[in-house]
């Protein structure tokens, strides 16, 4: 996996970008943890298949096409064939609706951004030559295409700030009380702009806090980390892992 955060212009959409590389001699599966960000997926060498956890349907993403995913309620699996690279861009969720309104819906919150083989080839060439700056410029250009002036929803911005500051442990009641809005109004804002409820956003933020904290210090016990990340007990943690990733915490980290 290649991750490049620096070099991407901060003033626009991108918060993170990664290329997942095929290294084995057979199709390889990558599990994508939901992280409250919208995503753009671009197959760079060939086709790939995406399947949401809990869904019987899968989506084949073909080379030359650019795909946009709204923030996901659950994890997803990506299957890459030998030699295939895919570029996955993580997008600030406040831009999700603005982008989605311009796209044609396919299924399950996945949108086709259109076919642009020239753009895909240019991106592949930039990353093959480790030219992060060229890739960054191309990505910014791609994301900005057709974007109108964006009016920020301050309720969403303030809510997300509180949720991330507390790593998802804040209650929905604390959020809407601090913003002086009703619970129904807050949920309406979230569903309209992001496609998730405030509670779902908090749960996803919390499980990411747990996963990131464990990856930073694998010597720490899962039990100790469970309470540090705001879970009541291990059964609460396991329930979230089963829902979002269809596996237990132990099996998830072994597979990484």
Q: What does the model show?
A:
The structure is a single chain. This protein is of the alpha+beta class and 256 residues long. The chain folds into two domains: 143 residues, Jelly Rolls; 102 residues, Arc Repressor Mutant, subunit A, CATH 1.10.10.60. The protein is built from ten helices and eleven strands. A seven-stranded antiparallel beta sheet has the order 1-2-9-4-7-11-10. A four-stranded antiparallel beta sheet has the order 3-8-5-6, with no helix packed on it. It is globular. The N terminus is likely disordered.
Q: Keyphrases for this structure?
A:
alpha+beta, 10 helices, Jelly Rolls, 2 domains, 256 residues, Arc Repressor Mutant, subunit A
Summary, kept brief:
The protein is an alpha+beta fold. The protein has helices at residues 96-100, 117-128, 132-144, 154-165, 172-178, 183-193, 198-216, 222-228, 234-245, 249-255; strands spanning 2-3, 14-20, 28-32, 38-43, 48-52, 58-61, 65-69, 76-80, 86-91, 104-107, 110-115. It comes from Ekhidna lutea.
